[in-house]
Structure formats: C-alpha cells, structure tokens
Amino acid sequence: MSAKRNGDAVVVQPPQFDRPEVEIRASTRRTKTGNAHWSGSRVIVQIPARLKGRARDVFVDELVQRLLTQRPQVMASDAALEARVAVLADLYTDGVLPSSVRWVSNQKSRWASCTPATREIRVSTRMRQCPDWVIDAVLVHELAHLHEADHSKAFYEIANRHPRQRECELFLEGYALGLGISMEQADVL
C-alpha cells in the first residue's frame, strides 16, 4: 500500500515473521539522514526521497534492525516467553510452571490472564511495548495465580516477591492512559 502526503511518498509494509509492520515515509525535505520510531505496534521510518531500489531497502532495514535491538521483546516469540517464565518461576514462585504461555492479540482490557484449571497464561501483545521489568512483574503476577486463583492475601504474598510489582502497577496505569484506555476498562494488576 502506498500513498502521497504533502508531496512525500508513504509506503506501508505488512508485518513479517521477524519484524512488525513498517511505514516508510520518503521525504523531499530529508537529504542525508533517516529516522525510525515506534507508533503503537508499527515502526515509522523516515528516509530521504532520493533513495531508491536496493539502497532504500538496505537503509530501511538497517534503521528497523537498530530500533528492534533497543526493544528485543517486541518480536519475542512464544518460546522466548516460555523460557522467560521458567526463569521467573524459579526465582519467585517456587518453580511452579504453567502448561503454556503465549502472546495473544485478543485481550483488550487485560494485560495478561491465567486460567488456573488449565494452567495457561496468555499475555496481551500490547505488553510487547513495555520494558522487560514490567513484563516480568506481570508474568510473576500470573504465575502466582497457579498457587492462588483469587487475589487473596496469600496470592499477593507470592506475587509481591517480584521487587517491582508496585512500580509495575503504576507504569501500567500510565500506559493505559497513554493508550486511551480508561481505568475502568484496564485490568491493572
């Protein structure tokens, strides 16, 4: 898909296995430098309009790769999430593991969820934009549900073993506001 905006070309590349959706904005005002930044789950790349063909592809790929190395969790697989949960379970929840853990895109009001009966943990893809320590705190919260299904005192004794649990709550409250999600809609830990 491509379009023109203010005389500049805009091309959107669909997401691929190893990278998110990329919007390329070729600007006549840019002469030498490029820029890449996140806009939600999409990467916006701004490049000089003079770049064409292979040189353009290489320039865009380099900017996207540089951005992804700053936030490797954005493209983390379910297997990487499972490995992370195994480490966190050993550190904070006595090694108790879920039957599965995976990223899901259908959670609109929760950051993550756990079904104690099936021992499954699902993490919203919106969490991919969060710092590692926030994802870790959310995972420990969900792992605690494997011990205690409700939010009882015993549950919080386990969940709060993660040292940044309260900071995580504050971060997610702010993140929800930034996403335009009301606090009634957001299930903040």
Automatic annotation (TrEMBL):
UniProt xrefs under Pfam families: YgjP-like
- The name of this protein is Unannotated protein
- What taxonomic classification does the UniProt entry list for its organism? unclassified sequences, metagenomes, ecological metagenomes
- Residues of the YgjP-like metallopeptidase domain: 98-162
Q: What InterPro entries does this protein map onto?
A: UTP_pyrophosphatase-like, YgjP-like_metallopeptidase
Species this chain originates from: freshwater metagenome
